[in-house]
Known about the structure:
With 471 residues, chain A is mainly α. Chain A has helices at residues 3-14, 30-41, 45-51, 57-66, 69-79, 93-102, 105-112, 117-124, 129-137, 141-152, 158-161, 175-184, 210-215, 222-225, 239-249, 269-287, 299-325, 328-333, 336-364, 373-402, 406-436, 441-470; strands at 168-169, 194-198, 204-209, 233-234, 253-257, 263-268. Chain A folds into 3 domains: 3-156, MgtE N-terminal fold (Alpha Horseshoe), CATH 1.25.60; 168-287, Roll (CBS-domain), CATH 3.10.580.10; 299-470, Tetracycline Repressor, domain 2.
Amino acid sequence: MSDIDEQELARIRNEEAIHDIYADDGSVRADFLAMVGAAIADRDVLFLRQHVARLHESELGDLLETIQPDQRLALVRLLGDDFDLTALTEVDEAIRLEIVEQMPNAQIAAAIGELDSDDAVYILEDLAKEDREEILAQLPFTERVRLRRALDYPESSAGRRMQTEFVAVPPFWTVGQTIDYMREEEELPESFTQIFVIDPTFKLLGIVDLDRILRTKRQVRIESIMRETNYPIPAEMDQEEAAQIFEQYDLLSAAVIDENGRLVGVLTIDDVVDVIQEEAEEDFMRLGGVGDEELSDTALETSRSRVPWLLVNLLTAILAASVISLFEATIEQIVALAVLMPIVAGMGGNAGSQTMTVTVRALATRNLDIHNAWRVVRREASVGLLNGAIFGLLIGLAAGLWFADPNLGGIIATAMLINMLAAALAGIMIPLLLDKVGADPAVSSSVFVTAITDITGFFAFLGLATLWLLQ
Amino acid sequence: MSDIDEQELARIRNEEAIHDIYADDGSVRADFLAMVGAAIADRDVLFLRQHVARLHESELGDLLETIQPDQRLALVRLLGDDFDLTALTEVDEAIRLEIVEQMPNAQIAAAIGELDSDDAVYILEDLAKEDREEILAQLPFTERVRLRRALDYPESSAGRRMQTEFVAVPPFWTVGQTIDYMREEEELPESFTQIFVIDPTFKLLGIVDLDRILRTKRQVRIESIMRETNYPIPAEMDQEEAAQIFEQYDLLSAAVIDENGRLVGVLTIDDVVDVIQEEAEEDFMRLGGVGDEELSDTALETSRSRVPWLLVNLLTAILAASVISLFEATIEQIVALAVLMPIVAGMGGNAGSQTMTVTVRALATRNLDIHNAWRVVRREASVGLLNGAIFGLLIGLAAGLWFADPNLGGIIATAMLINMLAAALAGIMIPLLLDKVGADPAVSSSVFVTAITDITGFFAFLGLATLWLLQ
């Protein structure tokens, strides 16, 4: 590093604060990374406290994901109690575990106490059971009970994602009493947008949004301004289903209730946004034949997770090859068939994947159901015929000219039409059937669709050619 | 319809309200559809008012999407002023236009007046210019100005999605004054979670969350509890970029400012959730080679939108075929090559699409950037070599046994290894390059990746076989 660089770094490092840590393309600024790296190497705790500890949790998360793996633990250690554990909810699971496993349980316990319960659960749920118990044992009683209760709910349930801190008042309080309570109470959640109305057994009676309270005169009773909670979320409900309710009804937060209708927590839109993102990501990844891998996974982990899907595809590819082998004699006579046959199969695969993509997405967003399935099947069949005719004509002309053989053009045109229709039908029927039998159409549709378009493509093209030779 | 059904329907139709219009699979209940259909046929306005008008806007939207096209307009007409125009923000564009174009402009104007400005803009922006002007002319002055201003911002900008109703107070007010103002003011937004602090020129000074106001004593001045707005959204900003800010900083709402820093509106998380959904959907659809088609599009529209992608794929398929044609002489000697070659190309395509899926997703979520690109490229290359070795060995053994020819097994094994490595490199380098030059990697990656895996697969396999024959 040259002198000028060092001087420049020193100058920037003495600034009040670095305001935007991101470059224009959304990645973390290289100069900021260099400064942080230098500060870690110099064990410059002052700089790290001033410029790193004050970052927003998601910025700190991005920083942790971007710096060198060996710098991560050093940074966390240097920050000590100034390290905001919430940042760990923003990083890949592998990085989270790597950091948490190296932190002393006592330090985690101290930091967990500062977190909202939903963030605390997010970090605790991935830990080994013994570590989790040791950390919980060091927490104050109420908090321990609250976190245990959330951790008792099934993985990916609303109960796991909920926040157990909330404001609840009895229905007979007035607006004035409620405001006075909030002015005096120390133990309120860090932020909230509504308060809950409960009876003495914690049974949920209604909800009042904060703006409603602010618009209402002091002497008005809460029960007269509360609204019914149309969409209380059972704690056992899967987080995806809860997210769908949030989306459908534009909720900002929702009461989470136990099996007796008692209020146990509140689910907020920021957690739901994360769930929506995860779901969309999962569907996207599954359709491409990859599981829930992360960018920080090693080559070995990545390879292992991708092998099963490739293996299934190998089997269907061999199946398709065995269809070709039925026609070896025909290919021996006309080698042009071997040249052209991948076009028929490939175009079918592309058309099938178009239909399948639309179908899988429409099923995921619940836009496709029994009421319109038949209409969409008919439409896709028409599209298949139409595009089959267009591309049949195109490839028929091209192949006829290429091999100076109009018969070959006619054969490939017919095969293309047949395969595009098969692709359209497979592209919609297979996801629909998989969904019907309870399988995830995003995971397995493409294997079946490709198998059908390959087999149909080879069979139609080589079969028609064989019939023609027999004439 | 049998007598019993009619009696049953009559009984249900007289119930107070139908509580859940959805069946377990998330589709609209068939019996509810039957009832609505019967009520439309009977022009039973009373039933429709009681059971349909009271639906949540998103439920009414689902109902409109599910009933027969000819029932839609009839339903809207029968409901008259009881039809909640907000439901139109929840349906496909084609259905929205179909309904709005048939409604008299005067009725739309009356209904638009009742909507939040963001919903009003959402409906107005798709209309023909003359209709829009006619409707705007019938609105009260302030509202007309507000909507015009939002409509003046570019399509898909934050200014289009923002709500122009908000609560703003001067910094020198006390908490007490602010609460009194909210208790007396009639013209407050329907719901809000924060209030804005502005100077006399509407320049944004800060934000106060409602829970902060409720916790604070009456005599405290607003300026002492307001927080800086770290993330004000310029009205011209693209809605995607705004959504990313919401996600990153877990915002519930954000101030939208004009080029002079003046507060012009507020963007809320419910609109942002819709944007996030749309974005995820777009990436998903693009990777599958389909544009922004909708389930309600006709076969002709669908065909037209899918042809370009298929056409590009046809060209690359012909390119790959021309590679095969270089080796016609070799294939004539060993027809088994024609049987096996699609396996090599196809497996490369699958492996390439796995890598590409991960890369496109990581680019979209900004997890992949210059800081880790090189590491991920190295990882993918290792995965390609590893999986290439595994599947090369498998297919080598299988092909060697199938055709009783160990040399053929060795050739296909080597070709598979080469193609899997090429697939890995293409799967990551192509999206990275497309992103670098400013193209959308989701749209065009798969065409290039498939072209490379096809060409490499055919060339490596047939080329190696030719070399072996020449020995």
